[in-house]
Amino acid sequence: MVNVLVVYYSRKGENYMPGGVQVLEKGNTAYAAEFIRDALDADLFEIQPVKAYPAGYQDCCKEAAAEARTHSRPELAEYPADLSSYDTIFVCYPNWCGTAPMCVFTFLEHYDLKGKKIVPVCTNEGSGLANSELDIAKSCPGAQLVPGLSVRGHQVKDSAQSIVDWARKQML
Fold first, then answer.
1. Model-level pTM greater than 0.85?
2. Largest CA distance in the chain
3. What is the pLDDT of residues 133-172, one digit of tens each?
4. Residue 1: pLDDT above 60?
5. CA–CA distances in Å: residue 107 to residues 18, 48, 91, 113
6. C-alpha distances out from residue 27 to 16, 131, 166, Å
């Protein structure tokens, strides 16, 4: 049996959606990660930076852009003790500044992921995966990176079945 971990970073609160900024009680990426977890009977781990990003959307964007410019690696609150039992790791994240949030790279670079199958899932409002797949590949030397899935954030809840179908295909 293949052991699967779904790792995700998601931002609740003020988020960009078509028509402007809306307050979300739960981030879009969390829904996608949970759909995959449930479909594959996988383990789930939420990436949580020690220092939370600003609550306001514009302030968060400014901080995310500053982190991306400096290739910052924000400290995380915790990590799973060991990833050796996992064959496949789904990495779910929003597109920030044309890539994954820097806290996702903090997580990935904490481990030797050589030989693991890494499956990116990116929520966004039209920017797609952008450079995230290339950046993830650089952070996971020796891992098998498969082509990722791009999902419109505002459509995540209505996309459960297509996300699940895609995730199951990655396990073949």
1. yes
2. 44
3. 999 999 999 999 999 999 999 999 999 999 999 999 999 9
4. no
5. 30, 10, 10, 11
6. 11, 21, 20
